[in-house]
Amino acid sequence: HRAGPGVGGHCISVDPWFLVEMFPDHTPLIRAARNVNDGAPARVVSAVPADVETVTLLGLAFKGNVDDCRESPALTIASLLEASGRQVRIFDPLVKRPPVPTAGTLEAAVQGSDLLLLTTPHDLFAEIDPGSVALLARRRLLMDTHGFLDAERWRAAGFEVRQLGTGSFFEAGPAPG
């Protein structure tokens, strides 16, 4: 019951659909919940400002502190962002065999980026120095899909911070400049 970009993993995101298929007349709530969760990545992408050209995804795994990216919402988000014409870079040092290309370092992922989009709440992401990242990014915009990062630390480094679950995620924010 937390804000997030959708549900992933190999069972929670798939098993309810088996129940809906087997018992369609008895599972309207399950169907509705899965439809909401399956649509979450598209809602995240819809909140990305139109003038953002390069997005750095922080995280590929389906949940924090694991290396498993099966059914990960981050994969869907990356695909939707690319389909919208944006360049996507992904950094997830925990995923050892990513199904898509990833940046080898945080610095490579962030260099010249317009947006940092936290998609997986790995503990190691809480240790990122916002001041160092600010020197690499083209634009200081952080969108946190888990409300995980310390927003005040990032704001102190000059970032506009939007966190899912706080009411700020879907705001237009100030004009770039």
Notes on the protein architecture:
The protein is an alpha/beta fold and 177 residues long. Helix content is 32%, strand content 12%. The protein has six helices and five strands, in the order ααβαβαβαβαβ. The chain has a five-stranded parallel sheet. Helix 3 links the parallel strand 1 (54-58) and strand 2 (87-91). The longest helix has 19 residues, at 28-46. It is globular, with a radius of gyration of 16 Å. It starts with 14 loop residues before the first helix and ends in a 14-residue tail after the last strand. The mean pLDDT is 90.
What secondary-structure arrangement, pairings included, does this model have?
Elements: H1 15-22, H2 28-46, E1 54-58, H3 73-83, E2 87-91, H4 106-110, E3 115-118, H5 130-136, E4 141-144, H6 151-156, E5 160-163
Helix pairs in contact: 1-2, 2-3
